[in-house]
Design a protein that fits this description.
Layout (H helix, E strand, L loop, with lengths): L1 E6 L9 E4 L10 E3 L2 E3 L14 E6 L2 E7 L9 E4 L20 E8 L6 E12 L14 E5 L5 E3 L10 E6 L13 E6 L7 E8 L3 E8 L5 E12 L3 H9 L3 E3 L5 E4 L1
Antiparallel strand pairs: 1-2, 1-16, 3-4, 5-6, 5-8, 6-7, 8-13, 9-12, 9-16, 10-13, 11-12, 14-15, 17-18
Length: 259
């Protein structure tokens, strides 16, 4: 079983979770003896589906979730959408560059089965029209990761200056329980005020005019969080299939290494 959840922010945005569940198919078996074929009686079989679900929690408050329930029409239930960092700035105050704000992100298992969890964080800049600005530095969006709480950083996606960072929770997350925090604070680095572009214009050789433009003027920062969960049954194979990572799992179900 697998489940995915994505979230974005305003200067921040949040997406949704996607989950895929494997269904059991029941078929008939035929036996042939000489020219005679014998079929079994037709019996209907009802398979009880256990639910897999994830909820992204920000500063103690659930902001988005997706849970799978075995509705007869195959529809998703328990889908809640939200926005990251909506309450980041205290009411009546303006956002301050260089100030650290509380931004504690955790994941709650809102399903009914135990699961493994992965979180992908995306950081980038947009202009006022919502167009991504890939030339601007995602590292200046300083979302502080606290990996000491049982999170394992993907070695191929763990740069402080990259747009995408990936983390795996190394322990099994029991139904109804919550991970240790993945992040604790967020700030926009003061260095954005020093990022300028100068354009020199010569007026017919008489004098020179230098235009200075702040690279981050009029931009907004965006943070997205995408949460995936997979079943604990056949853990190594399930994780390889869902996330493309070879993992080593100890006798207690803890992920001890990945590649």
């Amino acid at each position: 079983m697998k489940k995915t959840n994505t979230q974005k922010s305003p200067a921040l945005i949040i997406g949704l979770f996607l989950i895929a569940i494997l269904l059991l198919l029941v078929g008939t078996v035929g036996y042939a003896r000489a020219a005679l074929t014998i079929r079994s009686e037709e019996y209907s079989s009802r398979v009880e589906m256990k639910d897999i679900g994830v909820t992204l929690v920000e500063n103690g408050t659930p902001v988005a979730s997706r849970d799978y329930a075995s509705a007869q029409d195959g529809s998703w239930t328990g889908n809640v959408e939200g926005t990251l960092c909506a309450g980041l700035v205290p009411e009546g105050e303006d956002f301050e560059i260089g100030r650290k704000y509380d931004e504690v992100l955790t994941v709650r298992n809102s399903g009914t089965i135990n699961e493994y969890v992965r979180v992908q964080i995306f950081r980038y800049w947009e202009d006022k029209n919502g167009k991504k600005q890939p030339e601007l530095d995602p590292g200046l969006i300083d979302l502080h990761f606290t990996t000491a709480g049982g999170w394992l950083a993907d070695p191929d996606n763990n740069s402080t200056t990259s747009e995408r960072n990936v983390f795996y929770y190394t322990s099994i997350l029991p139904a109804g329980e919550e991970t240790a925090p993945l992040t604790d604070t967020l700030k926009i680095n003061e260095m954005i005020a020093t990022k300028v572009t100068e354009t020199t214009v010569s007026k017919e050789g008489k004098y020179t005019v230098i235009h200075t433009t702040y690279d981050y003027d009029g931009t907004r920062f965006v943070i997205e969080a995408k949460v995936d969960a997979v079943q604990t049954h056949n853990a190594a194979d399930a994780i390889l299939s869902a996330w493309g990572r070879h993992v080593t799992v100890d006798g207690s179900g803890n992920i001890t290494s990945l590649r």
